[in-house]
Amino acid sequence: MVARRRVGLAVFWLGVFLLFVHTTLPALWELFGPGTPYPLSSLSGLGAIATGFTPPLGAALMVVAAVLAGPHTTHEGA
Amino acid sequence: MNEPAHFPTALYLYFAAGGTTALILFALVTWTWLRTRAVTSGRLRSGLTWLGVGFAFLLSSQWFACGIGAGPGFLLGDDDSARQPFLATAAAVAGMFCSVIGWFGVLVGMRFIHTSLKQGVTRPAQTPTPTRSRRSQHARVTRNRRHPRQSQMAPSGVGRGARPHAVRIGSLVFGGVTRDRLTARMDAWLIRAPA
C-alpha cells in the first residue's frame, strides 16, 4: 500500500512538472533567464507538437495519480 | 511551425502571470482533491473521480483556448505573417470539445456526490461516532464543565462561551463545520457506508 502511494505521488509530481515545463518555465526563462533560447522549446518535429499537449497530459497524469495512490485509512493526509 | 510572434509587453506579462497563477491553483486544487478522494469510498469517491476528470478537461480546454491568441494560432501577436487562422480554429475546436467533456464530468460528479450525501444524511446512524482518546475526552469534559449556577441558568448546549476563539471564527466562516466536526462526520459516514 505504501509503495502504491509512493508511485501515485511520483506520477502526481511528474504531472505537475509537465504542467509547468512548457508554460511557466519558458516565461520565467524569458523574463529572468540568460539570453539563450529556452532549452526545451522546439519549433519543428515531434517536440513542437508535444509542446502543445504537455499541460493536458500533466493534468491527466495528476488524475491518474489519485487512482494509483488509492485509499488510505488514516485522516492525516496523503 | 513559424517563429513565435512578438507580443505587446503588457499583454505578455498579463497572460504569463495569469496563466502561472491558474496553473499553481490547479495543482493545489488537484492535490487537495487527491487527499480528499483518498479518505472517501463508494459513491462519494466515484463522484470525486468524475469531478477530477472534469477539472482536468476544463484545464485542457483553457490551455487549447490559449492556442488561439498565442501559439500555434498567434492571433494576438504583432507579426501578421506569423498568424495561423487554421491552427487557431483547430485550437478553438479542441478547446470547446474539452470544455463540454469537462463540464459533463463535473455534472456527473456532482450528481454522484449529491446522491451519496443524501443517502448519508437520510440513513439513520447505526454506530456511534468514533471514540476519542482518553486525554482528548478529558479535555472535552473539562472544557464543557460549567459552573453549577450557569448550568441552572442555561439549558444544555446553549451558551458555550468557553470555546476557543479560533473555533468560533471557524464556525462562523464555515457554517459550523470546523475541522474536528468535518473529520467526525467523515468518520461516521465511512463507518456507515456499505463496503
Summarize the structure.
The complex is a heterodimer of chains A (78) and B (195). Chain A has 78 residues and is mainly alpha-helical.
Would you give an account of this structure?
The complex is a heterodimer of chains A (78) and B (195). The N and C termini of chain A lie close together (12 Å). Helices cover 67% and strands 0% of the residues of chain A. Chain A is built from four helices and no strands. Chain A is elongated. Residues 74-78 of chain A have low confidence and may be disordered. With 78 residues, chain A is mainly α. Chain A has one domain. With 195 residues, chain B is an all-alpha fold. The radius of gyration of chain B is 26 Å and the shape is elongated. Chain B is built from seven helices and no strands. Chain B has helices at 9-38, 42-69, 85-122, 134-144, 148-153, 165-173, 179-192. Chain B folds into two domains: 9-122; 128-145 and 160-195, no CATH class. The A-B interface holds A 8, 12, 16, 19-20, 23-24, 27, 31, 43-44, 48, 51-52, 55-56, 59-60, 62-63, 65-67, 69-72, 75, 77-78 and B 1, 3, 16, 19-20, 23, 26-27, 30-31, 33-35, 37-41, 45, 49, 52-53, 55-56, 59-60, 63-64, 67, 71-72, 98, 183, 186-187.
Terminal CA distance of chain B reads 54 Å
Considering DSSP H and I runs of 4 or more, what fraction of the residues of chain B is helical? Answer: 55-70%
What is the total tally of β strands of chain A? Answer: 0
Question: Roughly how many Å is the radius of gyration of chain A?
Answer: 16 Å
Radius of gyration of chain B: 26 Å
- The low-confidence runs of chain A, each spanning 5 or more residues with pLDDT under 50, are 74-78
Taken from the alpha-carbon principal axes, the silhouette of chain A is elongated
Which two chains touch over the largest interface? A-B, 30 and 35 residues
* Main sheet characteristics of chain B: none
| Overall morphology of chain B | elongated
Oligomer: heterodimer
Helix-strand pattern of chain A, N to C? HHHH
Given helix and strand content, the structural type of chain A is mainly alpha
User: How confident overall, as mean pLDDT of chain B?
Assistant: 75
Q: Which class best fits the helix and strand makeup of chain B?
A: mainly alpha
First-residue to last-residue Cα separation of chain A = 12 Å
What is the β-strand count of chain B? Answer: 0
Strand composition percent of chain B = under 5%
Low-confidence stretches of chain B: 149-161
